[in-house]
Amino acid sequence: MTVEGLEPCKPEPGTFAVDGRDGRVGRVMGRVGPYVQLRPPGGGAEWECPPEAVRPAPPGLVLRARVKEINWEGRLPS
């Protein structure tokens, strides 16, 4: 799923964004050099995205990502 037509953005850490190159949604972890670091909802390996390819995540994708994180947290032992 690709997200076209959305303007590039300067996301804040902790928010969700879309990698416009392939449509992946990730939580913004910060910046390393010129790249934005994104992590998949629920955890996993971070990936780097060039800032011109970062797009704001639409509300529906944000909701889906948050539910995935909550479900993942529920599986972890206390």
How would you portray this structure in words?
By secondary structure, the protein is α+β, with helices and mostly antiparallel strands. It is built from one helix and five strands, in the order E-E-E-E-E-H. A five-stranded antiparallel sheet has the order 4-3-2-1-5, with helices on one face. A hairpin with a 7-residue loop joins strand 3 (35-39) and strand 4. The longest helix has 17 residues, at 59-75. The N and C termini lie far apart (35 Å). The mean pLDDT is 88. Residues 1-22 are annotated as: Disordered.
- Contiguous uncertain segments of 5+ residues: none
In the sheet with the most strands, the strands line up as: 4-3-2-1-5
| Gap from first CA to last CA | 35 Å
The total of helices stands at 1
Largest sheet: 5 strands, antiparallel
C-alpha Rg (nearest Å) = 12 Å
What order do the SSEs take from the amino end to the carboxyl end, as H and E?
EEEEEH
Q: Can you give the helix content as a percent range? A: 10-25%
The amount of beta strand, in percent, is 25-35%
- Structural category is alpha+beta
Number of strands: 5
Mass-distribution shape: globular
* Overall average pLDDT: 88
Region (Disordered): 1-22
